[in-house]
Specification:
By secondary structure, this protein is α+β, with helices and mostly antiparallel strands. It has 2 domains: 3-136; 147-290, Reverse transcriptase/Diguanylate cyclase domain (Alpha-Beta Plaits), CATH 3.30.70.270. The chain has 10 helices and 6 strands. It has helices at residues 7-27, 38-61, 66-87, 99-105, 107-140, 155-172, 186-193, 195-212, 236-250, 274-288; strands at residues 29-30, 91-92, 176-184, 218-223, 226-232, 261-268. The strands form 2 sheets. A 4-stranded antiparallel sheet has the order 4-5-3-6, with helices on both faces. β4 (218-223) and β5 (226-232) form a beta hairpin.
Amino acid sequence: MMWRQHRYKLVFSLLLLLSSLLLAFYCGYAKQSYEFDWVDVLGEGTTLLVACGWLGLIVSSRPAGRVTELLYYGSLLLVYSYFLDLLDEFIQYPEDVRLMSWLESLPAPVGMLILTYGLIGWHREQRAINRQLRGRELFLRNHELIDPLTQLYGAEYLLAVLQREVELHQSQRQPLSLLVLDIHNFADFNRRNGIAAGDHYLGQLSELLLSQLRHSDVVCRYSGDCFVAVLPDTAAAAAQIMAQHLQQQVVQLTDEENKPDLIMAVMQVSQDSASAALQTALQMLAASKQGTEFRLQPV
C-alpha cells in the first residue's frame, strides 16, 4: 500500500494536531454552548475536511520523494491553520494571549507557498510523463508494442529506441547508460500472494519508475519480471546514483516481510548495436543475481 511509505508523516501530523489542541486548552478556556456560531463551525469544519482530503489523496497515490514532501507538508500547514481556526469557535483566549492568533495565521501563507512549489514540481512530472505518452502514441499508431498491464513499452520498442540512442551516442559522443531491474523469483511472490497481487505490484513498480526517472529516459518492460531503462546523456557514475535512488524508493512498495527480491544492474553503453548492449546488460544482471538483493553491479 502506498500509504506505508508515509506512515511517519501521518504519525507526525497526528502528534502536531494533538499538541495544538492541548496548547489551545492550556492558553484558553471552553466557550459556553450558546456562544457557538454554528454557521462558522460548518464553514471552517468543511474547509478543514477538504484539506485533510488533500493529505489523504497525497499519501494514497504518490510515492515518497521531494515533490511529495512539498505537497504533503504544504497541505499539512494548511490543515494546522484550519484546525486552529476551527478551535476558535469552541475556545476563548484571553486578550493578552497572541500566540494562538499567530499560530493560526502564519502557517497558512507559508503552507500555500510550499504547496504551490510542490504543484510546480508535480506539473513538471506530468509534463515529462505526457511527453513520453505522446511519443508512445505516435509510435503505436503503426505498432502494437504497449504492455497492457504496466502501460510501458515492450521489448521490440526498447530495441528500436536503444538502437537510435546508440547511433546518437556514436555520432555525438554523448554518454549513454542502461539500467536493468529484475524481480527475482517473482513466480514465488505470485504463489505466495496470488496473481492479482503480483499484477498490482507490477503496476505500482511501473508508476514509480516513470515518476522517479527523467522525462528523457525511456522505461520498458523487457519481459515478465525484467524492466530496462534507457538513460541518454548519462555516464556510469550518474546512472549508479539514479539506481541507488530507485533502490531507496522501491523497497517501500511492500512491507518488509512480503517484499520480492529486486536486483539492479547499470552499465554505460560502449557497444555498437542495441542487441549487443542489451545482451551485455542482461549478463551483468545475471551476475548480480549471484549476490545479495539490490546489489548494484559495477561498470
